[in-house]
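Support case: 5'-O-[(L-methionyl)-sulphamoyl]adenosine complex. Customer-provided input:
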Amino acid sequence: MSEKFYVTTPIYYVNDKPHLGHAYTTTAADVVARFNRFLGRDVFFLTGTDEHGQKIQQAAEKMGMSPKEFVDRLVPVFKKLWEVLNISYDHFIRTTDPEHVKAVQHIFMKCYENGDIYLGEYEGWYCIPCETYYTEKDLIDGKLCPACKREVTRVKEESYFFRLSKYQDKLLELYEKNPDFIGPEFRRNEVINFVKQGLKDLSISRTSFSWGIPVPINEKHVIYVWFDALTNYLTAVGYPNDTERLNRYWPADLHLVGKDILRFHAVYWPAFLMSAGLPVPKRVFAHGWWTVEGEKMSKSKGNVVDPFEVVEKFGVDQVRFFLFREVSFGLDGDFSYEKLVARINGELANDLGNLFNRTLSMLKKYRKSVVPEPKGEFDELDKKIANKALATLKALKELIPRAELSKALDEIWQFVGFVNYYIDRRAPWSLKKEGKDAELDTVLYNMVEALRFITAFLYPYMPASAEKMVQLLKLDTKAQELRAEQFESWGGIEPGREVEKGGILFPRIEFNPETGEVKLAKTKKG
Ligand code: MSP
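Agent response - structure generated as follows:
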């Protein structure tokens, strides 16, 4: 049986429509999933929705609906977005799924039986939008949430507590022994410092509202929404009954999260799992946040980027590419239409689109669009292009499964740049003029073979465009069926086969920032 790879996104709160931030984490997971399938792995890619808690209950009340009615109306919007973004998830979990409710109650009882849950009283502060507890000293100006800066609520109620304090040393040992457990590195240090400052027991039930999973031994309480939500990663792989499936896929290989929810995934979650006697995930990677033209995205500012709209205007792969190209994955970044347009015109239309176009036109002009046999001897540059292609693939294998998505894309772009440089240096037009036919064959061959590699490299990031590339090169396969083993050596594309005569992969665009209008730029004929 092939090696498995289990990758997850956070499950999204369905109190509102999805925005660019949600699209970001999910697209990242899609890149990782697609690349692992390309490696021949048995991938399980999970996403879904987080439907319980006070925040959802309140949003539903505002609309005069029951919470379930309310979430049922929003879930299809998330699913639609994943379709529009070409997200290849294997399963969509909802925390209102009956098997999830059972799984949460089961793990709660496991921790309880192991002596890690006790009844007490919670008195302190709670941020409903973040569904997070705070102590007095965490607050800004004594009343604002340190994360979202909204006003917190005073809470005093009976509550079950999880003995998080007991896990402090075990967690520190986990981080110490598994340097890869948290990425990027600087976030790992933040988490270690947080845990070193001391962990307090965590309130994991509420009595003041009802929209949640009941505590099995005390129906007055609903389980804290984060305890509920984190368990989704187990439910989806068969916990607790389907042990075969659970043993196959658990622990998860990669949890992708935003920096705001790293603490839940890298501190609370492994502690719950240890308590329940289950292995911890292999890696949690936290990405940064997008601002918009320097400002935090927020409804009140009216600057929330609607992913449906951006994709509609600029194209799905253009957006997918931009997300990982513009900002180093792991750091914060800034979104603007101008930057998006600059990447599309400069890198997709110019660097990549032109590379395909000029290669196919030369092949048409010099060899009637038939891939020639590389008869000429390989010179230094010919050897270099082959070696670079193989080295790039090797780098991607290291980087993408670890969620180093921008570093990987940078490697790919360096290769694209090198192929353009190769063509300029080997100058097929001069070889033609000088009548160096064998050498011309070799160079043209290498150009097409390089495009075959680029197609595979870009497939995880831009699946629809990779499909077009496959068609341009007439590769007799689908992009999603390409496998790493077809790229173990240089020379995979067979001489004698035909390729398309040309085609535009990424049209240049003109964008009017005043009106927001997007037009395809006029191209010169020819
Ligand atoms: N429901 C919890 C997750 C539970 S996982 C067991 C949750 N949901 S969320 O809908 O609020 O956020 C989901 C993801 O969106 C987070 O990873 C968060 O970082 C990401 N983003 C929300 N706004 C963002 C930006 N402005 N930029 C980038 N990502 C951001 O938290």
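The two ends are 51 Å apart (CA to CA).

Case will auto-close in a few days if no follow-up is received.
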